[in-house]
Amino acid sequence: MDALVSAGLEDFLAAAPRPQRFVMGLLLALARRPRGAALLARMPLAEQAAQATLALGRYDAPAVARPLGWDAAAVVARGRELRRTEGRP
Amino acid sequence: MTDVLEADFCVIGAGAGGAVTAAELAEAGARVVVLEQGPSHDADEFSARPPEMLARLYRDGGQTVTLGAPPILLPLGRGVGGTTLVNSGTCFRTPSHVLERWAEEFGLELDETSLRRCFERVERSLSVAEVTPELAGANAAVARRGAERLGWSHGYLRRNARGCVGSGVCVFGCPTSAKQHTGITYIPRALAAGARLFTGADAREILVRGGRARGVLARMPSGRTLEVRAPTVIVACGTVHTPLLLRRSRLPDDSAQRGRNLALHPATAAFALMDEPVDMARGVPQSFYVDEFAGEGIMFEGVAGPPAYAAMSLPLTGEAHARAMADYRRLAQFGLMVSDESRGRVGTLAGRPVIRYSLCERDLAKFRHGLARLEELFLAAGARQVHLPLPAGVRPADATARDLKLMAFHPLGTARAHARAGHGVVDGQLAHHGLSGVYVADGSVVPSALGVNPQLTIMALATRLAFHLLGTSVPDRAMDPHVPDTQPDDEEATCRS
Fold it and tell me: Is A48 in contact with B405 (Cβ distance < 8 A)?
């Protein structure tokens, strides 16, 4: 797995309703190739959807998010500690 | 194979409406069965990672989309807690002008004292309190600065949170369990009082015999069927799925309103590049509002999240997107929500919900006006650059519906309440007009857009319904043995930075 793409992206794509999953798979395949991306550029709505999905995966990767000041693991660890020490559910 | 259970009440859905109704009924001594289609979620599984949490906590991975112009993303929670598990926690009482409209237009005369008690009861149960400026974070400070310079009405939001530390991921599962969603408040109360909860229970049909409801048939994950025999059924599947269950069960619909009248509160958001560090995910994402234009149906509310969330919603592509994200720490974001007059409808295709909704001209005008004002707000706050959710080169005044990039979080109205049977699916007591023993307790009964976040309205109506079913009045604060004794007005007790 590419360290610059979140593994959670696959879960996200798999959770979509079947028709959307198929369409998004197609759009992402286009967006990842130069000629496909050029084709997508002519369809703003489709391009936006594909780019937004790719961005969701890319910026979720810890290697990308941490330099931007976001450490999900630290947020979760703090939550666990608070729940443990304060008896929260 | 069918398993059979007997109960006084069968509640379908464990979200804002179902959980509240179940707890109130169970605590009064009734035998209650709750059927929840989704799973129970454990805070230990919350990873603060948007893609993973969207897949796990949301119906269809948060990718439910309406058909129409424009298509609108409609994320809905799934599981114990429903959408209260994944909302921002904002709590507004139903505005008085909305209640007046309900009385005039829908014949819904809601007793003011009784409703006030319902709101108080819910607010105490959920520890509702105003966010402190410290906890609100720098993203809210940007909006506040802009609003103050422009002289616009604004304030800090009230939320259902206890011991919040501003993790910044309310909509992806609160990792500190600070947000008081119904899965950790009302449902545990219901269970402690003897209610039985079944998760993964797909309610297929309301059973009808002798002209009234007799129970519910549900498909269980094991493949077995569960029949809950109960004289009273409370449907709380949410605005999208409630009308579908009513239709599947072949309940009469003389009003022809079932599945219609869908309001959504369509929303969008803009970003701004500031000089100062913002770190939008530090603090409460939805902590501040600007209601200067609420009278026109336009509300600004805070919205923010981790880089993945921001990157997904940033209205740029290619190099421009990468450049803006490189400055993520100085990006501020604020949302715009419209109290809609457009109406959609919910149907099915091949067994799946199909949601049709197109923005009417009046709502489009609200977005045009609202986006221009949102840009003004950011510029007044000192923004270097504002990224509006419009295609490059399109100004707010020229935007068409298809130019807008919209999301919606508050579906309402598809089983609307109306005093007259020919005009609504349920009456003022939320009883189904066409069949005895069926009640509805979710956003689908709300007959019009509210202009504010609806969770408190839904919970107050559910509380009112529960006491109606019990045949008692809603207790005053002082006579409230079940509701936890929190201090809702004490900010320090509920929030800390």
Answer: yes
Which A residues 55-74 touch B at CB under 8 Å? 55-60, 64-65, 68-70, 72
What is the dihedral angle through the alpha carbons of B306, B454, B417, B68, rounded to the nearest 10 degrees? -30
Q: B454 with B98: CB under 8 angstroms?
A: no
The whole-model pTM stands at 0.96
B280 Cβ neighbours under 8 A, 6+ residues apart: B137, B138, B139, B168, B304, B305, B310, B331, B332, B333
Whole-number Å distance between alpha carbons of B88 and B303 = 9
Collect all residues of chain A within an 8 Å Cβ-Cβ radius of residue B176. 78-79, 82-83, 88
Backbone angles phi, psi at B87, to 5 degrees: -90, 180
Query: Residue B293: which of B405, B148, B451 has the closest Cα?
Result: B451
Distance from A28 to chain B by nearest Cα, in Å? 14
Residue-wise pLDDT for B358-409, tens only, equals: 999 999 999 999 999 999 999 999 999 999 999 989 999 999 999 999 999 9
pLDDT digits (tens, 9 = 90+) for B139-184: 999 999 999 999 999 999 999 999 999 999 999 999 999 999 999 9
The catalytic residue positions of B are 410
| Helices and strands in chain A, H and E counts | 6, 0
